[in-house]
Amino acid sequence: MSFIQRGYLEEDELPPKPSEERLKKRNVAYIECPQEIPCSPCVESCKYDAIEMKNINDTPKVDYEKCTGCMRCIKVCPGLAIFMLRLRNGRGYVTIAYEFLPTPKKGDTVTLLNRRGEVVGEGVVTWVLPPERNEKTALVTVEVDPALIYEVRAIKVNV
Amino acid sequence: MRLTKHPILEFKRGREVTIYFNQKPIKAYEGETVASALYANGITTFSRSFRFHRPRGFFCAIGKCSSCMMEVDGVPNIRVCKVYVRDGMMIRTQNSFPNADKDIFGMIDSIIDRFYPHGSHYKKFNRPKALRDFVTKQIRNFAGIGNPPKAVFDEKGRYEEIHTDIAIIGGGPAGMSAAIFSARFGAKVTLMDENPFLGGQLVKQTHRFFGSGKHRAGTRGIKIAELLRKEVEELDIDVRYETKVFGIYNGIIGAVERDKKLLKIVPKKIVVATGAYERTLIFENNDLPGVYGAGGVQTLMNVFGVKPGNRGLIVGSGNVGLILSYQLMQAGVEVSAVVEAMPRIGGYFVHAAKIRRLGVPIYVSHTIKRAIGKKKVEGAEIVRLENWREVEGSEKRIDCDFICVATGLSPTHELLYQAGCQMKFVPELGGLVPVRNRFGETTVSGLYVAGDVAGIEEATSAMMEGRIAGLDCAIKLGYGGDEAVKLRNEIVRDLKEFREGPFGERILAGLKKVEVEA
Asked: Domain 4Fe-4S ferredoxin-type, which positions (chain A) (predicted)?
């Protein structure tokens, strides 16, 4: 079974992980886009030349040292395959593109889901880019257990 | 059933009007089709089938399947997915007594096979002649579609002759791109579409597009439709809405505008960009109301803001099926599962991941066995496949109230055939497609194709094909000079690069069979 049969990535299929020092410095883009598809907005949006792609059908590879965490790529990714990761003061932060209603607010507690859609815990929203600021795609940062930054990939807003 | 809030879309509804469904008044809004207004009021059975009186609803919602026919203002067999509501409109279900919901002839369906297997009436009741005449009359009485029109057509017919450089049939992504890129260089363009709006199927694509930024990747389909529409308006393009082309005769196009005016269009070049229609799939009860084409549900939900149901099963995991699943969830509709007959997900992994992480199961090597329900879908049964054969005992009941068939599209090739283009059946491109060169010119000189009608792909490549065809027409007519040639060749290169990945392999294999030297 590979990711294309399951619809999610297993641990051994994940792209290389940024170092812990890098994660502690500032946000870093983590792109889970393992399949060769004709798509390149992330590369075109990056002002720091941090994403490498040989041609439009290549998979993106991030140079974590060049990435500044500016979030340009996560804003345009049509596959919603980019996540911003961060470690700070012993807590983990994951930023997710969110296109559902209602948009969560800062301070809300949301249910955290992994790649398989299983509940892995609860997290607090620490930052929101409202949907009207990004062509209707909101960005939501949740504070999570630092061990979960490679697990949490979706949120469910509790209404 | 009407959506009021949506994360991506805003629904601007027109004035409230009243239409009459089997004489019962129901509320509707100007700008929506009869089919969506009925649906918003919970009416799913539009008529009964013409022989066995099985319930019928809509399937495609874009005027291709003819499953949604009803009697409108006394005229039978009108596709209600293409008719817009008007105050006081009289809608009636047809082929039923007293109405399609409770049709007493519906019992034919449940008993006929027991006594008279399909086709047996050709052999039975033949002698004596008097019996044959009597039975034939009775059979004809409850078979057939609709009653003769009660209203008499009293409009005066009108006629117009149009001379133009390039006539473009179809105002979707390919047609609009062809129009824009040829008009930019000064060609006189007439653009025709059967809908009262331009955009084709882009108007329901709420997701951001793939591809490169140069070709509008990262932008939502609905936004691309708007951008193209604006550009068409800014250029001096003659747009004919609600215009149905019925034939191309020696390079002259015959069409009807708004059901009233006959058009004779005499162009120097023609671009056919008529798109595609959805295929259905064979399984038990696949004709029940509640079994829809994926695009039909998108139209209902994203164009008219009406929910198709509460819980859907998606058959097919190509990009259409995956994107639709995500769009259903955005509209607040549950998706019970996605089934895929192939042993792997057909569409882009990232689209699958988007719904998988929200908990939607994707069953590969599974297919739908039957739809469950009497008058509409009340559930479904899926089954596991091994080497494309059903595994006995692996059936599973899925709880759902509608089923979306997203198993592929076929090119709307009829006009090309009629015009005399050499056609080939190419499975990789979705069916019958014309032989053409790399600029889209078919074997009929001056007749071009672009978009899904040339082979099923997707909107980004359709736009590129449209640009190429439009530019080539303009170049051949002497517009644009070197600049246009340079631009055309550049887009041909981009398109080639676009198709170079694993997802383009199939397309390239198909193109090999139909592309000839320019």
From this structure: 58-87
